[in-house]
Amino acid sequence: MLRIEKPVGSHVKTGDAILVFESMKMETAITATHDGVVAEIRVAQGTLVQAGQTLAIIR
């Protein structure tokens, strides 16, 4: 994971970028699927993630 755009406690709307990943020198934003508050981020900056891994919780 490259960086956190919205830290825990941030209010987000559908489509807001929450996390940004880098793959093959391209940046890809992970966006909110619904309006809410970022309750938890389950990956640390600089770590590798697996397909299907839960990255963040929005409530």
Structure notes:
This protein is mainly β and 59 residues long. It is globular and about 30 Å long. Helices cover 0% and strands 44% of the residues. The strands form two sheets. A three-stranded antiparallel beta sheet has the order 1-3-4, with no helix packed on it. The chain has strands at 3-4, 11-12, 17-23, 26-31, 36-41, 56-58. It is built from no helices and six strands.
Put the structure in a nutshell:
The chain has strands spanning 3-4, 11-12, 17-23, 26-31, 36-41, 56-58.
Helix share of residues?
A: under 10%
- The shape is globular
SS field, number of helical segments: 0
Largest sheet: 3 strands, antiparallel
Number-wise, the strands total: 6
Q: What is the CATH architecture descriptor?
A: Beta Barrel
**CATH level-4 homologous superfamily:** RNA polymerase II/Efflux pump adaptor protein, barrel-sandwich hybrid domain
Distance between the termini: 22 Å
Helix/strand class: mainly beta
CATH topology: OB fold (Dihydrolipoamide Acetyltransferase, E2P)
Q: Could you give the order of strands across the largest sheet?
A: 1-3-4
Low-confidence stretches: none
Q: Kindly state the mean pLDDT as a whole number?
A: 95
Strand-and-helix sequence, N→C? EEEEEE
Share in β-strands: 35-45%
Number of domain units: 1
Rg computed from alpha carbons, rounded to a whole number of angstroms: 11 Å
CATH class call? Mainly Beta
How is the secondary structure organized here?
Elements (H helix, E strand, L loop, with lengths): L2 E2 L6 E2 L4 E7 L2 E6 L4 E6 L14 E3 L1
Antiparallel strand pairs: 1-3, 2-5, 3-4, 5-6
